[in-house]
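In this supplementary section we document a worked example of the pipeline. Step one takes a protein sequence of length 457 as its only input; no multiple sequence alignment statistics are reported here. Step two produces a three-dimensional model, which step three serialises into structure tokens for compact storage. The input and output of this example are shown verbatim.
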Amino acid sequence: MKMSLSPPPLSELLPRLGPKELPRVLGLQLGPLVAGRYFHWDELRHRTAPQGLSHEAWWAGIKIARQGLLKQLPFQDKHEHPVLFGMLDPVLRALHDIDRRVGGLVAMGKSIVSGEDRDRYLVSSLIEEAITSSQLEGAATTREEAKAMLRSGRKPRDRSERMILNNFRVMEHIRELRDEPLNPEMVLGMHRMVSEGALDDASAAGRLRRENEKIRVMDAQYSVVLHDPPEAASLPQRLKRLCAFANETDGEPFVHPVIRAILLHYMLAYDHPFVDGNGRTARALFYWSLARSGYWLMEYVSISRLIKPAPAQYGRAYLHSETDNNDTTYFIIHQLSVIERAIEALYDYLARKTADQRSAERLLRHAPGLADQLNHRQVAILSHALKHAGHGYTVESHRRSHRITLQTARTDLLHLAHFNLLEQRKRGRAFVFYAPEDLRTRIESAAHRSRPKRTGG
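The serialised model returned by step three reads:
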């Protein structure tokens, strides 16, 4: 990724416009957006300027329009310049869509994200976020291997798997912290959890970087410095300011809860207070903030899964904000788009899982004698097994997927094996229950056996 070209300062552009061009620029009444988009100078300079304006004059008109919309946050960059954000139409529209869709999801009913299925959906989401958030920072392992580790409870084999396990644990821990005000010790605790056993220097886990630990954010080829964070001496005070902002609910200016979570993500990543694990900690803080504000459904959404395919856009959103006078609107718009797409993915996921569950229930409905003896967890296994022949289920993986006791998990699986719907085999010292290739035939056979026999008359 290339370094974004810093915009020409407005203070230098205005004198250059002169007495003729400046009134013309002002007369055009340019808005803060171009074709509905919040362009950075690095993008705008490649587009055709309107009505024969120079690109510098065009940019000056846009910056004048933006100045009246930007609000100052209680943060400063490393040069003590203010950090800003703007509530423009794309931001307001996205916030409305997020609030409406999350509210709509609540109305979709208990059978989808509460009650019996809620824990299963939650565990799947936590696993997805743990894996992709770690992969964004270099974890090299496949999703299937990582999922198998988390569901089986086996120990991580290498640093990549350790990063993923740590991420999963901190995401679970956030649920316990949602009602507590944020303090520096909590942030350090989050970092300790995400970095334990995954750092070259084990002593760096859960502490701020020191003066002799110079950290720079480089491009993929390590040839260009993309970000040079604040000095280590300033980090304790910057962290206190971050926590104060996180806990504020009625300050000036008003900051929407979703925007607040995004800004916590941005500022922790800007400060880069740790020798490693800054991105994972920043994203954990984002989830904590939303949970604290009552956006509990965001636990079911993985933002990292959507950031991972396009990491350059993620990085560019940071750079655009930093290089344009700390205007975080660029990063806010990018993250709102990610959240909207993540909610859409959640809707699609729930629709697929609901369809799979109903398909299994319809199949079992023809075997009332069998269906009456199966609980919702066993039906969930069968709906998965129908599409994944040969998949192995263990007592531990079933326990973790549904957050139940070992005894309950063991009983569920043994019951399915008793009905010949799973095949029980010994693997090492434990049993594994496999989905048979002919599961549908076995269910249909059970349906035939369960039908009442007709008597002659």
